[in-house]
User: Fold these one by one.
Assistant:
Number 1:
Amino acid sequence: MILYFSAEGNSAYAAKKIAAAMHDHVVSMEKCDPVLSLQEDEMLGIVTPTYFWQLPSFVRAFLERLQLAGSHQSPYVFLVASYGTTPGFTGEDARRLLAARGIHMSSAFSVHMPDTWTPVFDLHDPEKVKKINQKADAEIERVIAKITAHITGNQMARRIPYLMHRLADPAYSKARRTSHFHVEDTCIGCHLCERNCPVQAIQIKDGKPVWVKEQCVLCLRCLHHCPKFAIQYGDGSTKKHGQYHHPDI
């Protein structure tokens, strides 16, 4: 079983590629009961993006509830983190969370993909994005080969020490404040952002989206999938840097 969380499609794409190669099936964490029952010799994969050097808050919450029921032996459990600049300490983060649930994480891998954090990163050039995704395909194939061989240990590139969570945690918490979002007049009140938010932080009121929670996951799904690009974050950089979703998802 391959579990994934994905907002703009990068992790969904990687999860589906891995599952196809392993003749396995994929399940979104948003649609999955955290109590899992694995078949004999079945492996468990977790595919996630990297937010602020760490696991997204949604993935952390899922792993904190994860249970493996009825497993007769320790399965091969692996993590794959997509990232733009660094997978940070996602591997160690996941290892600790799973260990607290009595689950041993066998290995961790990383795949460089377009960074969807458009308050900083510019994704308006389709050729640039295409080249990154082409290189990602080759990386995913290498990860598949290692998973097939049941390679163990933290195999992530560009990872950083877990100690950096002391800086990353407060930065992520601050950035997750929904007060950073605003809506432009081009909004058509289509309800897509409301339906797509993984933590139900958005409601349509008087025809416009309103953030009803102080914090969200910061996945930017609402921004990147808005048909009118009416949702923006921060000082206006997102408008210049464009929208993104993986072309094959």
Note: The mean pLDDT is 96.
Number 2:
Amino acid sequence: MTPGSPSATTIESRGVDTVPVGERNYRPWHVFTVLYGSNLTYSVIIFGSFPILFGLSWWASVASILCGCLIGSLLLAPMSLFGPRTGTNNAVSSGAHFGVAGRFIGTCLALFSALGFIAITIWTSGDALAAGFGRMMGITPGPLHQAACYALIAIVVIVVAVRGFHLLVRIQERLMMPLMSAVLLLGLLAFGEGFDAGYAGGEYALGDFWRTWISSMLINASVVLSYGVFVGDWTRYIDPQRHSCPSIMACTFFGGVLGMGGPMLWGAFVCVSFAGEAANFIPALISHSPSWYVAGLVLLGLVAGIAQATVGLYGTGLDTSSLIPRLNRQQATLGIAMVAVALVYLGVFAWSAVSVVNAFLVLLLVITAPWILIMTIGYAQRRGHYHCDDLQVFTRAQTGGRYWYVRGINWRATAAWLAAALLGLAFCAAPPLYTGPWAHLAGGLDLSFVVAFVCGGLLFYLSLLLYPEPAYVFGPSGPGLGTREAAGAAPREIHLH
């Protein structure tokens, strides 16, 4: 961290307002640090067990994990460019394309994603703590032990998230990356004896190989893609005059591939040792671990789980506070944390947690993918030119500005996203939460992601060609798509509600 960076020892007070250039002292490396360090935890590792649980062989599982992470990271990388250009997070930045009121879509996506992943992190890390302490003390952990461990993880997560992003970066650099990397490397030694590279898999969860493999691959891609809404929380502290777009995208890409692909592959590796118990991954992991390694697994749940949950909680509290003026970032963060903790207890003690997690990831991918593609097309169209002050209109309880469009909504992007999301959901099979009416048209093959992604991008691109946006939303060079420039009037005058 360079001199002059905001302190990690004080509570971060900044919300989604534009970060001044003088405070943008982070480097692209810090994005890699957060993506890598915060994902060396059970909430990502457990997804590596899904291919084995679905019946895939070891090598088929490796292929599904790598393909999913590569696809997810390729889509994630461009989302890192908005923060440096706008000085704010991606949800607020989306106001340039969806309208300053249409940015509410991005906020809802962030909230949906964060609640799910915070709950998954607290659940998996809490189970690891309960099982680990239980084995070390020679007792069988019961529901009360689990509940206490969930509460412990949640409390520490809230403390770090309320303190802010700068403390999180320090934790990643000085603790998470070296310590958790060492723990995972030791895990290869601990479970190496029971590993079989020739593991052939079992009965396919979806009836045949390709449907099962594609489903597994899409789940892995959705884990990486979920950061598309959050990556601007960190890149807004990067000065675009000092760091190039390719360097920012490269760090984001490799952070996605290594930060999530590595822990998933580790999860698949250890799961081969107890494939028959993959449905109860965390307890099975603890019970099959050598005694000398149990302490490392407990540490992985406590330290790493805290950092991963903090990423989502910090970002969602940041954006929610901008929509509810009466709440500051700390209050919004606390409120969201309470909801996430409630979901943990419901998921573990009232629902089937694994099936709910699987369904959540499928739904998340369907509704997030078209939003990300629309944002990427919009960035290319504007050539990365944004009017930062006009993006903050909604946050300041004002109206007007370049991105006001029609009552704060740009119908081109909003209609394209809505149509794509609805079409994708119609093809989506995500039991027990949801099954669309056309989910079985392709013989059980899940087309929801492809339909949503392609339709969202195509509809938005066509709308820009047929109905170009007003000229005043562009930079000096004018629009980058379309054959004619819209003759727009001057931007609406900004005024209070």
Note: The chain has 19 helices and four strands.
